[in-house]
Amino acid sequence: MKLFAVVDRLLLGVLRVARALLGLALFGGAMLLAVVLALCVLFWALLRGRRPGAVRAVWRHATTHRPFQHAASRRPPETGDVVDVAAREVTSIRPSQGG
Q1: CA-to-CA dists, residue 44 to 12, 33, 49, angstroms
Q2: Pairwise CA distance, residues 71 & 62, whole Å
Q3: Would you state the pLDDT for residue 33?
Q4: pLDDT of residue 36
Q5: What percent of the chain is predicted at pLDDT more than 70?
Q6: Contact between 32 and 24 (Cβ < 8 Å)
Q7: Closest Cα partner for 42 from 30, 34, 51, 31?
Q8: How far is the C-alpha of 41 from the C-alpha of 44, rounded, in Å?
Q9: How is the chain split among helix, strand and coil, in percent rounded to 5?
């Protein structure tokens, strides 16, 4: 009975190590694939005569970052003609007959 427990523990240990090595191999393969794809894109762009654009990663703090605010929205709005439109509220809507 004790022999089976030792063999069982040994097999579980071997399987854990094998699983860890398999995970490392998959991770390394994914990293290698990413590098090869990046190099292929770089060489393709250079062969076509177009330099690939620089990657600019910016990390902003959540309190200082205002989404959807672009340079155009920081400028004061242009003053132009103001148009007054008469509108009415539609309270009943008929369902459409089409499918």
Answers
A1: 47, 16, 9
A2: 19
A3: 97
A4: 96
A5: 75
A6: no
A7: 51
A8: 5
A9: 50, 0, 50
Q: What whole-number distance in Å separates Cα of residue 49 and Cα of residue 18? A: 46
Between residues 72 and 48, the one the model is more confident about:
48
Note the residue count of the chain. 99
Domain spans in the chain, listed from the N-terminal domain onward? 1-52
For residues 38 and 45, give the distance between their C-alpha atoms in angstroms, rounded to a whole number: 11
Mention every residue, 6+ apart, whose C-beta is less than 8 A from residue 41. 52
Q: How far apart are the first and last CA of the chain?
A: 72
Question: 33 with 25: CB under 8 angstroms?
Answer: no
Mean pLDDT of the chain: 81
Kindly indicate the confidence band of residue 39, based on its pLDDT and cuts at 50, 70 and 90.
very high
